[in-house]
Specification:
The complex is a heterodimer. By secondary structure, chain A is α+β, with helices and mostly antiparallel strands. Chain A is 34% helix and 22% strand. The chains are: A alpha+beta, B alpha/beta. The structure holds cobalamin. Cobalamin sits at the interface of chains B and A.
Chain lengths: 233, 211
């Protein structure tokens, strides 16, 4: 049975004043007119943004040769991630989003030609989507730990060796349009500010590196960001 | 007398109202629009670009300057037309099919627009067919493509082929960008240029059109 959780934006723990460090603009401090616009955008976002995530916990049927079978569907996370999940008895599959209200707000800003506000909102949206992902992971981990299980770190299609196109399999394991998210033909999610992932669950599962620590994308600005929401083990 | 140094400062500091005010005063005094643009406005943009490259200015500062520049250019454009001068060039830009990452593409579009190009922003998930159609319709000088996924960056090659097949490859330059790309990739797929950020994209577009 899938679970949908709506999260008040405030409880995502986003430090709005630190947004720039997290998005490759470290050192930037909005001032004057820009600060006023930024604050306006954040105020508007607080009105329209309804973050949510949806997850389902499914028996893990097998992990072999870079593949992971759950609910009769085979995912292709690659040898490294699959190896980390070898001891998983169950897999939590989740998607999360900043929501359709946020998407509409961003689209409207872009249409209005106010490029600065649009940039602020876009940047904030990316941080919100990532924070929803972290929140979903913590929520799932806490619940499982209550019942005596351990959890792996989260892993997402598109990261490391895992093809983005596998998002269609993640969606096949969830109800239709979870949290209002739909997939394009090419396997990406709309609203854009959405994320997907899995977490391994089991008595003996260990936490292995994830996120930036296993990413091969050399040019990424995140390589320079130290943040508790992107732990690099 | 119009304070043209103030126009340079207004562009540099991203002050739209001040830029518009000085531009109007300069026009009223009959100062040649090309002198206003090349002598002061472009210099302001160049300086903010240099500060950005040096890490002393940030994306929002670039956007503020681009907005001030666009505001002043909008006033000058009708006068330029009367002189038979044209815009810096027409650009069709989009994130390629299969990809939705568009923050970077929108920044590039804003900077190009701020620097005097006509920009037609096709949005995200844009097919080769759409790029070709828009390039033909708007008589584009450059097609700009963005991709943030290693899977979708390969689609850029298909767009290049579509442009060739449409018989317009000799009329339109192709520029590409996005975090997973580099210059070697751009050359390998038959594009004319690559740049790693929105500021450099403007310089690259100018270079391609003057070549
Ligand atoms: C922010 C972000 C997101 C945001 C959304 C971004 C948006 N557009 O709204 C969120 C968090 C929602 C997100 C989600 C996902 N993302 Co994402 N995302 C990023 C991230 C961290 C930054 C992208 C960005 O906005 N950069 C800021 C802008 C300003 O920079 P830029 O885009 O590079 O643009 C500059 C230059 O490249 C250049 N440029 C860009 N375009 C052009 C064009 C031309 C012509 C020129 C000349 C120059 C140029 O100029 C720009 C301005 O200076 C990248 C990693 C990275 N560092 O790039 C991953 C990344 C692109 N995402 C990735 C993935 C996998 C995803 C997900 C599939 C993950 C998941 N399973 O949930 C989802 C998919 C979402 C969906 N809707 O389906 C992967 C892709 C890997 C791959 N296989 O190719 C990356 C590389 C992360 C990684 N390390 O693996 N993402």
């Amino acid at each position: 049975m899938s679970v949908t959780v709506n999260i008040p934006l405030d409880s995502l723990g986003i430090k709005w004043e630190r947004l720039w460090e997290e998005t490759g603009n470290g050192g930037y401090v909005p001032e004057g007119e820009l600060l006023a616009s930024y604050n306006d955008v954040i105020r508007e976002i607080k009105k329209v943004c309804r973050p949510a995530f949806c997850y389902e916990i499914i028996e893990c049927e097998g992990v072999c040769d870079g593949k992971l079978t759950v609910g009769g569907i085979t995912l292709n996370p690659g040898k490294r991630i699959a190896g980390y999940l070898e001891k998983a008895e169950k897999i939590a599959v989740y998607v999360g989003t900043a929501g359709t209200g946020f998407e509409d707000y961003c689209r409207e800003l872009n249409r209005s030609g106010d490029v600065i506000r649009a940039f602020f909102a876009d940047t904030a949206g990316s941080v919100i989507a990532e924070a929803v992902s972290s929140h979903a992971f913590r929520h799932i981990s806490d619940k499982e730990q209550e019942s005596g299980d351990r959890t792996s770190f989260p892993y997402s299609p598109g990261h490391c060796e895992w093809p983005v196109s596998d998002q269609k399999f993640i969606f096949a394991l969830l109800p239709d349009t979870p949290c209002g998210i739909r997939l394009t033909d090419s396997g990406l999610m709309i609203p854009v500010k959405s994320v997907s992932g899995i977490v391994g669950i089991g008595k003996n599962i260990e936490r292995k590196p994830f996120g930036c620590a296993i990413c091969t994308f050399e040019g990424c600005y995140k390589k320079h960001v130290k943040d508790e929401r992107h732990p690099v083990d | 007398m119009a304070n043209l140094e103030g126009l340079y400062e207004a562009i540099l500091n991203g002050k739209l109202e001040q830029a518009v005010e000085v531009t109007n005063a300069a026009i009223a005094e009959g100062i040649d629009p090309q002198t206003i643009i090349n002598g002061y406005m472009v210099k302001g943009m160049e300086e903010i670009g240099a500060r950005f490259e040096a890490g002393k200015a940030f994306v929002p500062n670039l956007l503020m300057s681009a907005r001030a520049m666009k505001g002043a250019l909008d006033i000058l454009k009708p006068l330029l037309k009367a002189e038979n001068a044209t815009s810096a060039g027409t650009i069709v830009i989009g994130t390629v099919k299969g990809d939705l990452h568009d923050i970077g593409k929108n920044l590039v579009a804003s900077m190009l627009e701020g620097c005097g190009f006509e920009v037609i922003n096709l949005g995200v998930d844009v097919s080769g067919e759409k790029f070709v159609e828009a390039a033909k319709e708007h008589n584009a000088d450059i097609i700009c493509m963005s991709a943030l996924l290693t899977t979708t960056m390969n689609y850029m090659k298909e767009v290049v082929s579509a442009v060739e097949a449409a018989g317009i490859r000799d009329k339109v330059k192709i520029m590409v960008g996005g975090a997973p790309l580099n210059n070697d990739f751009a050359m390998a797929i038959g594009a004319d240029g690559y740049s790693s950020n929105a500021n450099d994209a403007v310089a690259m577009a100018r270079r391609l059109l003057s070549a």
